[in-house]
Design a protein that fits this description.
The protein has about 425 residues and is α/β, with parallel strands linked by helices. Helices cover about 30% and strands about 25% of the residues. The chain binds ligand LLP. Ligand LLP binds near residues 67, 169, 208, 248 and 394.
């Protein structure tokens, strides 16, 4: 029933998230509201960190991919847990700067970073820029030269791997807008060009094969291909110190999902890396990973208030809630599946199949299609589970709907991490 260990039921029979009563949260902060279990986020950070320490003997670093969920509070948690940070835009970088994140542990991604973004990165001392292409390489070298700085770089490489996931979140194959390709020789050319650039310092290689992946095999394959490439670079006189293997580990959204154990995954990949290092006679690089979803998704739930139940005899029953695609666009974008519980009575027996609909002016604005739920009525609080990743970070103001607040629960105590937007916020940039 519970897809996340954050959830429990208290003595009143009410759903708790991170030990805090969901109905009390809905009353205090209003609905819709994103609720995040800070303790579980921290626990996930530690699982990754410990596994990296264990399997790479401390020669590794976990970077949290902040695109999954970013705000100053989250960045502070990542800092306190000793992880690095993956940012992918000036906005994510700015959040890190404002949260006093150690810049040397920031890796800046993106397939079309603007000059302003690159300048901000160089000025603020971002540790490493993950360069996407040759145009960016030239732009970055000029910016670094003008500022009298030397910048650490690695290229994003397409290792030519098809991971089995939604095509919109599959990124390691040759037909992808991201990175430089291995099999065409583009990647090798890019490194040779970079080697000539005075203000750039090559530190590593990077790949990310996709997201919400359940198999270990594509990750092992990617690690092996990338190690082979490091050996090829060595033969060309280019020394690689770091190998960044990206993120992408799947999480449990619905009860039937079976995600891999992250420690087992890291162990399996580490074996491949060590084996290829020995075979090819190369030094073990420092290993970086960039989990996003698997750090925060299960730690989140969104609470909505049910406005009404519309029964269309012999067709479908729509249960409408006070949020929808503006706060969670993942159903309309990817057909993503979610699980939900009646927060005021999560143990009630499911009895009827319904569809949970949002409030946007769009027929496709659904949160969950066909889910068996207990009897639902107007005024009930519905908890949609595992919404901690790519919900708040992908939320929009469609229909000029203010974005919901983010409430973090720590030690069973809820507190506001991001305020609810107001109508004034909605019009504040209108001239
Ligand atoms: N590193 C790089 C370079 C990435 O592009 C991504 C995700 C990650 C790390 C983190 O991947 P994760 O561990 O979160 O799977 N909006 C989509 C997901 C897009 C992911 C894009 N890149 C969704 O809602 O499913």
């Amino acid at each position: 029933m519970f897809v996340s260990e954050s959830l429990s039921v208290d003595e009143r029979g009410v759903l708790c998230i991170g030990g805090a009563n969901a109905i009390d949260i809905a009353k205090e902060f209003g609905t819709p509201v994103y609720v995040m279990d800070e303790d579980l986020i921290r626990k996930n950070c530690r699982i990754y960190k410990d596994a990296m320490d264990k399997h790479y003997g401390g020669n590794g670093l976990v970077l949290y991919a902040s695109k999954a969920f970013s705000c100053k509070r989250m960045v502070k948690i990542v800092k306190e847990e000793g992880l690095g940070l993956d940012v992918v835009s000036g906005g994510e970088l700015y959040t890190a700067i404002k949260a006093d994140f150690p810049m040397e542990k920031v890796y800046f991604h993106g397939n079309n970073k603007t000059e302003d973004e690159l300048s901000l990165a160089v000025t603020s001392g971002v540790g490493t820029i993950v360069v996407d292409n040759i145009f960016e390489l030239e732009k970055l070298n000029t910016i670094a030269e003008n500022k009298g700085k030397t910048v650490n770089i690695m290229f994003r490489i397409k290792p030519g791997i098809d991971a089995h996931t939604h095509e919109f979140v599959m990124t390691g194959q040759i037909d992808s807008k991201f990175g430089v390709a291995l099999e065409t020789g583009e990647a090798m050319e890019a490194y040779k060009t970079a080697k000539q650039m005075k203000n750039l310092n090559i530190v590593g290689v990077h790949c990310h094969i996709g997201s919400q992946i359940f198999d270990i095999q594509p990750f092992e394959h990617a690690a092996s291909v990338m190690m082979g490439f490091i050996a090829d670079l060595k033969a060309e006189g280019i020394k690689i110190e770091q190998m960044n293997l990206g993120g992408g580990y799947g999480i449990k959204y619905v009860p039937e999902d079976n995600p891999i154990d992250y420690d087992a995954y890291i162990e399996a990949v580490s074996k491949v890396v060590k084996k290829v290092a020995a075979e090819k006679g190369i030094e073990m690089p420092k290993i970086l990973m960039e989990p996003g979803r698997s750090i925060v998704a299960s730690a989140g739930a969104t609470l909505y208030k049910i406005g009404g139940v519309k029964e269309i005899p012999d067709v479908r029953t729509y249960v409408s809630v006070d949020g929808g695609m503006a706060d969670n666009p993942r159903f309309i974008m990817y057909g993503s599946k979610y699980h939900a519980l009646l927060a005021n009575n999560p143990l009630a027996q499911p009895e009827k199949e319904v569809t949970i609909a949002g409030k946007c002016c769009e027929s496709g604005d659904l949160l969950i299609k066909d889910i068996k739920m207990p009897k639902l009525k107007a005024g009930d609080i519905l908890a949609v589970l595992a919404t901690g990743a790519y919900n708040y970070s992908m939320a929009s103001n469609y229909n000029r709907i203010p974005r919901p607040p983010v409430v973090m629960v720590s030690g069973g105590k809820p507190s506001l991490a991001v305020k609810r937007e107001t109508y004034e916020d909605i019009i504040k940039n209108d001239i």
